[in-house]
Structures are given as C-alpha cells and as structure tokens.
Amino acid sequence: MPRQRPRISFEYFPPRTEEGKAKLLQDTTPALNALEPAFFSVTYGAGGTTRDSTLGVVSAMREAGIDVAPHLSFGGDNESTVGALVDSYIERGIKRMVALRGDTPSGMGGSSQLVYASELVAFIRARTGDHFQIEVAAYPEIHPQARSYDSDIHYLKAKLDAGANSAITQYFFNVESYFYFLDQCSAAGITKPIHAGIMPIINFANLARFSRNCGAEIPRWICQRVEGYGDDQDSIRKFGVEVVTQLCQTLLDSGAPGIHFYTMNQVEPTREIYLNLGLQPGT
Ligand code: FAD
Questions:
Q1: Which of 8, 73, 211, 263 keeps 20 to 30 A from 275, CA to CA?
Q2: CA torsion, points 244, 250, 256, 262, in degrees to nearest 10?
Q3: Distance 57 CA to ligand 1 centre (A)
Q4: Ligand 1 pocket check: which of 100, 113, 195 to mutate, most ligand atoms within 8 Å of Cβ?
Q5: Domain that holds residue 120
Q6: Structural domain includes residue 169
Q7: Does ligand 1 lie within 6 Å of residue 72's CB atom?
C-alpha cells in the first residue's frame, strides 16, 4: 500500500510593516501554497503583542481561501478578550488553532501570570466544542523551564487530554532526540500525532542565539562546519539545505507523521528542501 503523504505545514510570523505584509501575502504565500500544504500557521507575539497583526494576516489568508491557523496564548489578557478573539476567528471561518502558554514579553519583568497551554485548550473546548482542530507545542529536547524530562511529557499529555488533536515540536537537529521522545510519549500513554517542527538554516548567527534561549541544541559538528565557511554565505546556504533535507528525509523514512516548517516568512530554503524530499503535489 502506498505510504500516506505526510502532513506538511508552513509557519509565518506577522510582519511588522505593511510592505512586509503585502510581500508575504502576494509573493510568499502563492509560492508556498503551490506546494499544497495541509495548512499555514501564524504566530502570536508574547503577551498578545501581535493580537491585531496576527488576526490581520490570518483574515487576509482566509479570505484568499487558504487553510490557516492562528497561534494563540492568554498573554496578559483575560478570558473575555481571548474569548472574543476566538469567536472572531470562528466568524472568519478558521477551523484550526495552535494553543500555547507563550512567554512573558521582554521588559515586562515576569509580572504577568502565564496561563498554561492545557488551560487554554480546555478554555477553547469549553467555549467552542469541537469546532477547532487544536495543535499544541512539544519539546523533544525538553522545555527549558520543565521540572524534569518526565514532567514535561506529563504536561504534554495533559494538553492533549484537555482536547488538543495533535502536537508540533520545537525545532531540533538531533533526530535521535525526536524518536526517543516519541517512544517516551508512547510509554506515557500519548497516542496522538507529534509532528516534527523543522527550522531551515537561514541566518545562522540569529539561529544560534535563538537556540540558546529556547533550549534547542545545534550539534557541534554543524556549528564547526558553518564557522569554517566564514563569510561564504552561499556555502552556508547550500550546507544548510543539505543538512536539513537529510534530517527531514530520515524523519519521513522513519515514520514521522508530518513536518511543520518554520519558514521565517521566506519561500527559500523551505521550498528547496521540500522539493528535495520529492513531496511535490501529485507524487
Ligand atoms: P505549556 O505547555 O503550558 O508548558 C510550559 C512549561 O510549564 C513547561 O516547562 C511545562 O513542563 C510546564 N507545565 C505545563 N503545565 C504545567 C502545570 N500545570 N504545572 C506546572 N508546570 C507545568 N510562543 C509565542 O509566544 N508565540 C507563538 O506563536 C509560539 N508558537 C510556537 C509554536 C510551536 C510549534 C512551538 C513548539 C512553540 C511556540 N512558541 C510560541 C513558544 C512557546 O510559547 C514557549 O516555548 C513557551 O515557553 C511554552 O509554551 P507551551 O505552550 O509549550 O507551554
């Protein structure tokens, strides 16, 4: 029997400028949508800082007939603000959502109380029943604030038990961390799909900085290789495509249910990696 096509999705963040938004909607989205992803998703700034811009991008994509999922967290908002936002997504025909705790925005000094993702999932389910397909976050290398490896899996299960349909992971470059994590999740009684989040290598310096904060490890051999290329951006780009293609190929060959690309709002190198994998529509 032919293997089912893996679920492919593409993540955006809401652009800061009108020009950025126009480019995303008019250039990037048609190019990536031609690859027939299952859906796009649009992130939500820490503390609700992109409430309007996330809604704006999601609405415009939905009006263009695209299946798109807003990310959502309570941020510093109360139930009535978050509830109104959820309702407005229903009015716009949105059927999918990525539910998160989020982080405290820098500068707020940790003053606002973060609401766990499991509570947000329960809130959305209580308010909207089965309307949304809900995704939650998972961490093969374990969330930086988790009490322990097992407790993080325990709380992932709590989010799924609260009504989320599936999970998308933080990006990783160690394929073993993902498959070990899947085994541990399965042993803990998790049966819902855990899709692999994949970060194409675009700007290595930024990626290295971000990875330190979010607890995703870039293996030493990758850092060494990139360092060796110095300012040769073309070689870094080619190496990045090769490494990430290989990672995705291993994931798909070993039965990962799908891949969620953190596109960084760029068509390339996500498209190149996707084409390398032979995932073209109709194949
Ligand atoms: P939770 O699942 O609530 O877990 C947070 C931490 O608390 C974990 O350490 C967990 O082990 C622990 N925990 C959970 N429940 C409990 C409990 N009841 N008691 C004690 N401890 C508990 N951030 C954004 O700001 N905007 C985005 O759009 C965004 N999109 C993302 C998309 C994906 C696919 C991923 C993987 C991450 C994304 N993030 C985003 C980052 C995410 O918000 C942060 O990693 C955040 O720190 C944790 O969010 P969470 O939903 O995983 O939290």
A1: 211
A2: 0
A3: 23
A4: 100
A5: 7-276
A6: yes
A7: no
Helices marked H in the chain — which ranges?
Answer: 18-23, 29-33, 51-63, 79-91, 117-128, 149-161, 175-187, 204-214, 220-229, 233-253, 270-276
Contact call for residues 77 and 46 (beta carbons, < 8 A): no
Percent of the chain at pLDDT > 70 equals: 96
Mean per-residue pLDDT, 11-17: 97
Indicate which residues carry an active-site annotation. Answer: 11
CB of 143 closer than 6 A to ligand 1? yes
For 75-82, what is the mean pLDDT? 93
CATH code of the domain in which 188 resides: 3.20.20.220
Please report whether residue 32 resides in a domain: yes
Task: Give residue 112's pLDDT.
Answer: 63
Integer Cα distance of 163 and 157 in angstroms: 10
Identify which of 144, 202, 213, 182 has the alpha carbon closest to the alpha carbon of residue 13.
Answer: 202
Overall number of domains in the chain: 1
The pLDDT value given to residue 281: 74
> For the whole model, what pTM was predicted?
0.97
For residue 75, how far is the Cα from the chain centroid?
Answer: 18
Q: Establish how many alpha carbons lie within 13 A of residue 170's alpha carbon, considering only the half-sphere containing its beta carbon.
A: 23
Longest dimension (CA), the chain: 55
Does residue 43 line the site of ligand 1, with CB under 6 A?
Answer: yes
